[in-house]
């Protein structure tokens, strides 16, 4: 009986570890954003590379800090968005596909972009 217990106990532990380490389904992952442009100005068009995006652009919500971006194009592995107006500084960028929010990557709004655009040319 003792030999049986010595065999069953490690087997149960092994099965428990294997089940606990099973990778999440693709739809449950929270890291679809792999790469974005790290700095720019409001109004710029940027490409967000990653995975798990919806091909229906209306099902992807992209937020820069607290400002919602316009999604212009969507595929499974990238989104083309227009950077929304926001004050200068660094903000997190998050993509939500349906009800699944992504990881966040940082984007820096340039401080003098709007000022430079409004200066008269000589």
The CATH first-level class comes to Mainly Beta
User: Which range best describes the helical content: under 10%, 10-25%, 25-40%, 40-55%, 55-70% or over 70%?
Assistant: 10-25%
Pick out the low-confidence regions: 114-122
- The outline comes out as elongated
- Round the mean pLDDT to the nearest integer and report it: 81
Number of helices, counting only DSSP H or I runs of 4 residues or more: 2
CATH topology: Immunoglobulin-like
Task: Determine the CATH superfamily.
Answer: Immunoglobulins
Could you tell me the radius of gyration in angstroms?
Answer: 23 Å
| Strand order in the sheet with the most strands | 2-9-8-4-5
Beta content: 35-45%
Largest sheet, strands/sense/barrel: 5 strands, mixed
Terminal residue distance:
95 Å
- How many domains? 1
């Amino acid at each position: 009986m003792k030999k049986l217990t010595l065999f069953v106990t490690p087997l149960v532990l092994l099965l428990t570890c294997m089940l606990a380490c099973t990778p999440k389904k693709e739809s449950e992952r929270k890291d679809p954003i792999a790469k974005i442009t790290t700095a720019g100005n409001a109004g710029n068009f940027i490409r967000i590379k990653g995975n798990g995006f919806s091909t229906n652009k209306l099902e992807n919500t992209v937020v820069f800090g607290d400002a919602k971006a316009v999604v212009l194009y969507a595929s499974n592995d990238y989104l083309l968005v227009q950077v929304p107006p926001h004050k200068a500084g660094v903000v997190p960028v998050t993509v939500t596909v349906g009800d699944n929010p992504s990881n966040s990557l940082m984007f820096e709004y340039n401080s003098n972009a709007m000022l430079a655009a409004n200066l008269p040319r000589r």
